[in-house]
Amino acid sequence: MASIAASSISMQPRHALAKPETVDKVCEIARKQLALSSDEPVTGASKFSDLGADSLDTVEIVMGIEEEFGVTIKEDNAQNITTVQDAADLIEKLCRAKGA
């Protein structure tokens, strides 16, 4: 029974984590869009909502990401982005698909 419960709550493994430089660039985009001071911590684990982003800010962050990385993020994918890491992982996935 314990193994069933454990397997039902386990998270799906990530296919690939983004490169640190991609995470750093998304942090920069979020910091600029939200006008955060340089001493405000922004990491891969940072949730955009915790950084003070509302829905319009999030849309503008996504637009900044699209411009910076030359990718197009579909609305259904954009709605699933809650953290810097989510955004960076999606960028890596889109860049790989674009290069394939």
From TrEMBL:
It is found in: Plastid, Chloroplast. NCBIfam families: acyl_carrier, PRK00982.1-2. The lineage of its organism: Eukaryota, Viridiplantae, Streptophyta, Embryophyta, Tracheophyta. Coiled coil: none annotated. This is Acyl carrier protein. Residues 20-95 form the Carrier domain. Keywords: Chloroplast, Fatty acid biosynthesis, Fatty acid metabolism, Lipid biosynthesis, Lipid metabolism, Phosphopantetheine, Phosphoprotein, Plastid, Transit peptide. GO terms for molecular function: acyl carrier activity. SUPFAM superfamilies: ACP-like. Belongs to the acyl carrier protein (ACP) family. One of its GO terms (cellular component) is chloroplast. PANTHER family: ACYL CARRIER PROTEIN (PTHR46153), ACYL CARRIER PROTEIN 2, CHLOROPLASTIC-RELATED (PTHR46153:SF20). The keyword Chloroplast applies. Carrier of the growing fatty acid chain in fatty acid biosynthesis.
